[in-house]
Structure formats: structure tokens, C-alpha cells
Amino acid sequence: MDLLEYQAKSLFRQMAIPILPSQRIDNPADLKGLKIPYPVVLKSQVRAGGRGRAGGIKFVENTIDAVAAAQTIFNLPIEEEYPQVLLAEAKYNADQELYLAVLLDPVARRPVLLGSRQGGMDVEGSIEQMQQVAVDQEFSPFYARRLTLKMGLQGDLIQSVSTIVEKMYRLFVEKDLDLVEINPLGISPTGEVMALDGKVTANDDALGRHPDLAALSGKRQSSGLARERRSPYASGDRPHSQSKVQQSPEFDPKSKSPISNSESLQLIELDGTIAILCNGVGLTMATLDAVTHQGGKPANFVNIGSLDRYYAANALRDRVDLGLELVAQDKSVKVILVNILGSASKTEEIIAAVAGYLERKARANRHIQVVLRLVELDADAVKKRLGQLPVQLASTLDEAAAASVSSAK
Predict the structure, then answer these.
(1) Which GO terms describe its biological process (predicted)?
(2) CA angle in degrees (0–180, nearest 5) for 277-279-285
(3) Per the structure, how many domains does the chain have?
(4) What is the dihedral of CA 350, 248, 328, 285, to 10 degrees?
(5) Does one domain contain both 222 and 371?
(6) Is 85 helix (H, G, I), strand (E, B) or coil?
(7) C-alpha distances out from residue 244 to 81, 265, 276, 331, Å
(8) For residue 227, what are the contacts with CB-CB under 8 A and spacing of at least 6?
(9) Contact 111, 105 (CB under 8 A)
(10) Same domain, 99 and 190
(11) Is the N-terminal amide bond of 83 cis, ω within 30° of 0?
(12) What is the DSSP secondary structure assignment for residue 176, as one 8-state letter?
């Protein structure tokens, strides 16, 4: 379960992670009583990433402009989701932006610290700069400091950023979370650090131990559906921004649901033969490392993001289908490794997307191998469903990486 930004920052505040003065906005009229001095930034509170590119973040200088901007954002769907709430926040002039995260390694089932000196919207484009530190023993400040040194930080930043990482880790453990992310962590010209944006993913199985998080889940889901019903557009009539990704000539966007065109997927290109499709920065990094460790060469990869945002019918299936088209555009790609972790129902959509993609490729006389990692699913039933399609199943990441490398030879 992904929390909204303002909810994540409420948890940051509890841990004394520095955040900017902010105010929740439930409707544009609330801005007439804004307690934060201008200029401010208005942020759409939705689960999807890429809010800035989609027009969901606007800087304003006065009340008149703020009300007008809020009206626009409230009526702007981002990946089919309309915001119920906006966050008004003080403007911050950052001299540098970092990326920090604490997440659960899906393979080793242990916490991992991630950090990069390249934060903000383009973090995935510089994933090769991402540093990681596995927490393989009892946590101590040593782990946080080690991450900052691997990131290449110097001087006072080593201590100030280490302190932020320590607080993120404490939040991660105390709330049984799957992810705590700050992107970006702003650094002012004077060296002050500030969490400018944040993401928290709660573990659904642990919500019973954290009623405060469970309450946030209920509010968010019910309010999101209510906004959907109040939309002035029917589901098929909503205006959508044009996708910015390059699409394969064989891919027909008209046959897809609106989510396929509502926001672009970012394709990262590497010189290799094994394409990768994952969900989440951490899992993507782990998959790249696993393929390299097995002696393979990763090619194009796409991170489709959190599965929690794909609640509309067929939304995840269409997104996976688009991702497969993107990573396989380069004819040097011999294998696609699909490593998307989710619930059983989400996995069913992923299997359907892979099957549909391969059937379409077979009709176009292009044959490509897919390695599909599945966790806790009936492999025999999946094999029966996939029939004679060129799909290898794997239950672990190492097994999937080894199969991909073998198939690419």
C-alpha cells in the first residue's frame, strides 16, 4: 500500500526528518486561508509518479493564481486517479538533489539502503550511479555512513545525510514498511538538508499491527473512488496527455485502456541482449545485478512502478504489455526477464499480458524468449495456461537471471 506524499511526510515529521512548512488543501477555497507565505508549490496527491511531467505540480505567487492552479490540478487525472487532496508547501531553493531509500530486498529479505547523488525526476536515468548497502547485521550508524561515503559525499554532508538515513531506517523498522524513499533530498547552498518529496509503502500483511496506517488505507481508497465517480468525464471520454515513449510499429495504442497513454514509461537503454521489466527501483537494481552476476549483459529496462496504482480493470495488464513492447524494440534483445512482484490477482494480469504479447509477436513472425519470475504460484497451472509459448518460469531471482543468461547465448 502506497501512502500519499502528505501522509508520508506526516511520518517523516514524527521521526524529525526535516520537511517544509505545508498545509493540506481539500478544495481550492482553502487557499484563501493559507498560512504559508508565498511563493508556494501546489502538489497533486495521487499515488502515481511523474506528477511534475503530468502537470500535477505548480508553483504560484499569490492567492488568485493559487486558486486557479488548484482548480486545474483537482480536475487533472494522473494515471486515471483524480486527487482528493492537494499539498501546499513552501518553495525551496535546492543547490543539489539526492536520492535516498530504505527498502526490503525481495531476494534476501533483508533491508537495503540506496543512495544517489542524482535525485529528482531523472533518478532512473542515472541508475548506474545508485549506491547500495545491505544491512546484514544489527543496524548501526556505520551502515548509514558507509552509504554516504559510497555516494561520494564530503564534509558536513556526510553527517547530515547519515542522520537522515538513520531516521529513515528507524521509521522503516518501527512501522514494518516495505519502502521509505526521499526523492529528492534537497541540499541548500548553506548545506541544509530537506525532504522535498517522499514515498512510503506499507506492508499490507503488517497493517493489523499498525492501525494508524490501516486507517490511512481506508480513507485513501474510499476517497479515490468517490473522486472517480464525481468526474465530469465518462471513463472512455476523459482527455489524456500524449504518451512520450516511442512505441513499436506493431503496438496499437487504440486497443489499450487509457492508462497506457496517460503517462509515459521511461526506457533506459544499455548495450546488452537481456531486456528487463520490473516494478520498483530497488527490484530493478537487484535484477540488473543478478543478471550481471550470472555473466549476462542487461539491455533495455523499464520500471513500471508500484502495482498499488493499477486499480482500474486491465490497467496493469496494459501497462505490462506496453513495457514489453518498449524493452524489446531493439532487435539485439534476445530475452525479456519479467520480474514483477505482487499479489496473486496482480500476477494473473501479468501472466495474461505476457501471453497476449507473445501471441501477437508470433503472428508478426517475431520470436522472442521470456523468462517470467513467479512467487508462490502454481507453476503447473501457469504452464498449462501459457501452453507452447516461449516462456520459462522461475521462482527465485537467481534462477530467473541464470535462465535469462542461458537463453541469450
Answers:
(1) succinyl-CoA metabolic process; tricarboxylic acid cycle
(2) 75
(3) 3
(4) -70
(5) no
(6) coil
(7) 19, 8, 20, 21
(8) 81, 82, 83, 84
(9) yes
(10) yes
(11) no
(12) T
Question: What pLDDT, in 10s, does the model give residues 111-138?
Answer: 999 999 988 876 766 666 789 899 988 9
Distance CA 47, CA 305 (A): 10
Answer yes or no: is 242 within a domain: no
Place of cell 556505520: 142
Whole-number Å distance between alpha carbons of 244 and 46:
20
Q: 3-state DSSP call for residue 372? A: strand
SS3 of residue 310 by DSSP: coil
Q: Is residue 222, in this structure, part of any structural domain at all?
A: yes
Q: Report the length, in residues, of the chain.
A: 409
On whether both 397 and 386 belong to a single domain, the answer is yes
Pairing of the two strands 111-116 and 177-187: unpaired
| Grid coordinates given for 45 | 496527491
Residue 265: all three cell numbers together: 514509461
C-beta of residue 263 within 8 angstroms of C-beta of residue 50: yes
- Helices vs strands, H then E, count in the chain: 12, 16
Please tell me whether residues 37 and 109 are part of one structural domain.
Answer: no
Q: How many CA atoms lie within 13 A of 306 on its CB side?
A: 21
- List the alpha helices (DSSP H) in 242-377: 259-262, 281-293, 315-327, 344-363
What DSSP state is assigned to residue 120? Answer: S
With contact defined as beta carbons under 8 Å apart, do 298 and 272 qualify? Answer: yes
Instruction: Produce one character per residue of 61-93: b if its CB has 16 or more CB atoms within 10 Å, e if not.
Output: eeeebbbebbeebbebbbbbbbbbbbbbbbeee
pTM score, two decimals? 0.66
In tens, the pLDDT along 259-316 reads 333 346 788 888 899 999 998 777 888 898 889 889 999 998 998 887 766 655 578 8
The C-alpha cell that represents 83 in the structure block: 486527487
Confidence of residue 244 (pLDDT cuts 50, 70, 90): very low
Range of the domain at 84: 21-90
